[in-house]
TrEMBL record:
This is ROK family protein. Belongs to the ROK (NagC/XylR) family. Pfam families: ROK (PF00480). InterPro entries: ATPase_NBD (IPR043129), ROK (IPR000600), ROK_cs (IPR049874). Gene3D superfamilies: 3.30.420.40.
């Protein structure tokens, strides 16, 4: 890839991170601000502008010729707008236009955060070398993205691969999205913890009621904690198998906090996958942990900006 730089923004409900990234995925300059998620839309935009301003203060800024943004969603790349569930002040907020204005007219590429992490894992991480992959983030929510035919497949609005809202339980619990029995309603961290508590799991003396605490209890053999992770693994397996059956992916990468649970999640996940991924063309599907860590959103946003630039110039990677 080119040696010039791109700017990248990773926008979530907790923090807004920015970086200048080169064509090898290396981060040269960083900036970050907390997201004022409960304030009005202009306050959130001021935090974005502050991050961009800090990056622009670097002597390297002049080498950045485009910007990639990975944002909590839903996003609408076709309209250039974002409506992050966890940032109520932004509903149909014209982020692409505002970032373009703030940077003197640089071209902007917008994708959802699940798609950004997918781009990073495909470029530098666990899905490297795979032409057809699903990458998932399993944490407070469940997001994802697809690589098909060797290229990122964000879809027209930038949300393709949003596996968290595939229904895997026809008569399941209502999901806040309006559907029922969604993967997210069963497999997200808060839902793993909620189910364990409902079934009688008791937190330790520290009072930690998170999915990480449930994972620790499961490792120690607590049957209720084990069962909650098995149920999450089953939901993930059904969603992954459905995706593989539709579009023939051969690897699924799982990141996010719940993905860090290790064998407590992956052992029942491999077992459940064998129950759901049964057709000949999906039997070689593998599921692996993500490798990119906390910089995945920034590196993936940069990858999207670089890909757009190559498409525009006809240059190869």
């Amino acid at each position: 890839m080119h040696t010039d730089l791109v700017a990248a923004l990773d926008i979530g409900g907790t923090k807004i991170a920015g970086a200048l990234v080169d064509g090898h995925g290396r981060i040269h300059v960083r900036a970050q601000r907390p997201t004022p998620a409960q304030e009005d839309g202009e306050s959130v935009m001021r935090a974005v502008t502050a991050v961009l301003g800090e990056l622009a203060g670097s002597p390297l800024w002049g080498r950045a010729d485009s910007i990639g943004i990975g944002s909590a969603g839903p996003v609408d790349a076709s309209a250039g707008t974002v409506s992050p569930v966890n940032v109520p002040g932004w509903r149909g907020f014209p982020l692409v236009e505002r970032v373009r204005e703030a940077t003197g007219g640089l071209p902007v590429e917008l994708i959802g955060d699940g798609v950004a992490i997918t781009a990073a894992e495909h470029w530098q991480g666990a899905a490297r070398g795979h032409d057809n992959a699903l990458c998932m983030v399993v944490s407070t929510g469940v997001g994802g993205g697809l690589v098909l035919g060797g290229r990122l497949h964000p879809g027209p609005t930038g949300n393709a691969g949003h596996i968290g809202h595939i229904s895997v339980d026809l008569d399941g619990d209502p999901c806040p999205c309006g559907s029922r029995g969604c993967v997210e309603r069963i497999a997200s961290g808060p839902n793993i913890a909620r189910r364990a508590l409902d079934e009688g799991w008791l937190p330790g003396p520290d009072g930690d009621m998170s999915a990480a605490a449930v994972a620790e209890a499961a490792r120690a053999g607590d049957p209720v904690a084990v069962a909650s992770f098995e149920r999450a693994a089953q939901a993930l397996a059904a969603g992954i198998a459905a995706t593989a059956t539709l579009v023939e992916i051969d690897i699924a990468v799982i990141g996010g906090g719940v993905g860090k649970a290790g064998d407590v999640l992956f052992t029942p996940l491999h077992k459940s996958l064998a129950d759901y991924a049964t057709l000949s063309f999906v039997q070689r599907l593998t599921v692996v942990p993500a490798q990119m860590g906390t910089d995945a959103g920034l590196v993936g946003a940069a990858a999207a900006a670089l890909a757009r630039k190559q498409d525009a110039t006809g240059a190869g990677v």
